Amino acid sequence: MRIRLMTTLVCCSGVCLLVVTTLFAYPRSPKPARASSPTADEGEQIAEIPAPAFIMLMIARDPAVQSELRLQQKQIDDVAAAVAEVDQPFWLLRDVPVAKSAKQLDELQSKFERRLRAVLTSTQLDRLNQIILQARGYKALTSSEIAQRLKLSNQQVGEIRSVVARAKGAETVDAEAVHAILSSEQQAELSALIGKSFDLSRVARIGAVAPELQGANTWINSQPQTIAGLRGKVVVVHFWAFGCINCVRNLPHYQSWYQTFPKSELVIVGIHTPETDREKNVDNLRQNVSERGIEYPVVFDAAAENWKAWGNHMWPSVYLIDKQGRVRNWWYGELNWDGARGEEFMRKRIAALLAEK
Description:
Layout: E1 4-12, E2 15-23, E3 34-35, H1 52-60, H2 63-68, H3 73-92, H4 98-119, H5 122-136, H6 144-150, H7 154-166, H8 175-181, H9 184-194, E4 208-209, E5 219-220, E6 234-240, H10 245-260, E7 266-272, H11 282-291, E8 298-300, H12 305-309, E9 314-315, E10 317-321, E11 326-332, H13 342-355
Parallel strand pairs: 6-7, 7-8
Antiparallel strand pairs: 1-2, 3-9, 4-11, 5-8, 6-10, 10-11
Helix pairs in contact: 1-4, 1-5, 3-4
């Protein structure tokens, strides 16, 4: 789930909308070695990806947003408790096609919204919804709830959808073309809905609190460790299997990070989740780790307990966890497949996370 925010302030006819590209999954290798679940049908049409529920969670949990809302400490604590109730369920749905997870997302969103309504004042809720709408961008105008608020006709919704579809990304949507579709009354209503522009680049890129290691009894190159015990350090977690060629091609990158960054500040954990009978033999794993010169800790995920806890679905996958134990970035597939430059990107993200206070 790449969580990167690209913001552009676009104005037309006196209406300004902060357009945000919010991506929740880093590019997968075009030819992953192994995928554990089928992909969504290529013809599947989804109005908003990611679903608004994911954006709502990201915005509501963010310290910069909470400061904008002027939350008191008790409110901050109550919001954190509300986030904790839905955090892992949301995380496990991150790669499930929205059309297939809609019911679960709606239930989680409703649960979270109920908690927020009990914590925030009406003024705070209004401002929160304004920021959420800014983060959703122009695609939100074709959703049923926003279309109804603006009293858009079916023709207008179709025209807006066409403009959005022509753009290469949310940040390249033709703002003038969108606003030309709206009446002056609709433009005024939209301006009220989005409110004062909020700098979305301040929003922390948080996927979820990292799941704790499950059933991790067999370790190589290390004594048993826990995610909680590694708080204060940046942690790289990667899923692999030694018979997976795409995984093998990523291994030198992890080893390079291990040798480059201070070991007192960065921890790398390789989670070996086997698939074949040969990979399920721990002695074979030990031999492979030794032969490949892997020096960082490797845990044997024999029963795929961690694979399931992380909602992982592909070999290889790599996740970056910040000093507070939160997943901040991840990448599926080979890091440098077909010129993707994923290793460079992830290495820079590691450096940035290490620099955070």
